[in-house]
Amino acid sequence: MTSIERTAYPRFKRLITARELHLFFSPSREEAEWATGRTQSAEHRLALLLMLKSYQRMGCFPKLAEIPNMVADFVRRAVELPDGTLPVYASQRSAEQHRALVRKRLGAKYDAAGARAVAGETIRAEAEAKNNPADLINIALEKLVEAGLELPAFSTLDAMASALRGEVNAAICVGIHDRLSEAHRARLLGLLDVLGLDGKTPFNRLKQPAQRATWSHFKNLATHLEWVDGLGDSALWLEGVASGKVTDFAGEAAAADAGVLRDYTPMKRAALIACLVHKARMRARDDLTTMFTKRIATKVKKAKEELEKIRKNQQAMVEALVGNYRTLLQQVDDGGPAQSAQARAAAMTGEVLGAVADLDQEADAAEAARCLDGKVSPALLALAKALRVQTG
Length: 392
Fold this sequence. Notes:
The protein is mostly helical. The chain has helices at 18-24, 29-36, 42-58, 69-78, 92-106, 112-126, 133-146, 154-179, 182-190, 215-229, 234-237, 243-255, 258-262, 266-332, 341-358, 365-372, 378-391. The radius of gyration is 43 Å and the shape is elongated.
């Protein structure tokens, strides 16, 4: 039985605030006069007012025992009935007459057969895609309110949802079973057979979760995907079945072990395993993609770190060469024209770079001196050669 708390079926709250009492259960003067003119005792008057306010609030008639005492006491004090007055009916006929009076006053339609027909049609249609009884009941309630029909008892809706869902699920299982070939049925049902001495079945492989993104786990997962794909094309088996149903059936199969599934009928057993195989194929692909992405991200991170390390090493080397060149310039300029060391260094740097640009390829110091025809000293030419090697 579905818990009423999990549905939107109207019911009294466990804790009703004073504001809610005044807002929803306070009888007007006209309503109190209407109840007084149609009852002959204080008990019946209180019961009639409670039925009226309850229907206005919830759209259905609760049993008198279901009405909280704080609501009954509030209504009793509001219409100034004697203390200790309890809402009671002398007979079932009196209760039916009161419900008829409330329907007539509120213009409500009482059509039990019509309400059951609307609820049944809605539940049957929604059960093709939904499997939770609470969801089916909620949708049926919505349709009944839209049609302006009095709500059936919750037990009626609950029994209807359970029965119709069972019929729809059985039809879906038959469809999946019929789309399976004999070979595929035998293969799927064979997953429940124990293989080896460890007492495990291949069925457990369908439930295996993904592991850490290591290269060995990646290869194992690729092998697992190949095995799952080898069981058959699950998309053909589940053609026309709503994804919500596939998820629910797969969840039911995953929650059970091989021993429990063997107690199911062969038709339902094959359908549930087929749904679990379909989900296992999807999960394996998703896990493989995720693992591949993580592996690539790890490689990229390491490559960036190595590249940054190379850049820093090259920078340090260039700074060392520049420092050596600056020292060399200071030695070459010793005794030269008076000018700042910075200006002389800039001039010598341009001279060396010009010499480097004139060289088409590497040459030894003697060949370089011949090509430059005494333009710079052999020491500067050696430094130019070194710079050329560093700059490619």
